[in-house]
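Here comes an entry:

___
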Amino acid sequence: MLEPKKLKYRKQHRNRGSLKGVALRCNKVAYGQFGLKAMEKKEITARQLEAARKAAVRYIKRGGKMWIRIFPHKPITKKSAEVPMGSGKGAVEYYAAPVKPGTIIFEMDGIEPETAKEALRLASHKLPLQCKFIDKKTL
C-alpha cells in the first residue's frame, strides 16, 4: 500500500473545507491515452486506491501501462474505542488522498479503448466516489 516515507508532522488537521470547488491541478490526461476522472469530492484511502489498481491491472493482464495520479499523503487519526474525551489526538489509522471533482485518478496507455474502459470501470467500483471514463482524443 502507498504511504509517505517521511512527514514533517505525524498528525494533521482534517481540513475538509479544502475539498471545495473543482480540481485546478491534475485535471487533464497527461501521461496516457485514457483516464478515470473523479466526479465528486471525497477522501480516497490507500487501501481503496490499491484495490482499484489491482482490479484494473488484473483485467488488462499486464498489457499496457498504468499511472496513479494521486497519492495518499494525509494521515487520518482515530481514537480507540471507549476512550474518554481529552487526552490528545488519536493514533494514525491510515493515509488518504483528498480528491476534488475533475481530478484524474488513473491513466492508461498501450491497450485497446474497450479494454481500458472495462478495466477503469472495474477500478471505479472499488472507489467511494462516482467516476467517469475519459479519452485524450475527446478532450
Observations:
- The first helix runs from residue 46 to 60.
- Residues 29-81+88-135 form a domain with the Aldehyde Oxidoreductase; domain 3 fold (CATH 3.90.1170.10).
- The mean pLDDT is 91.
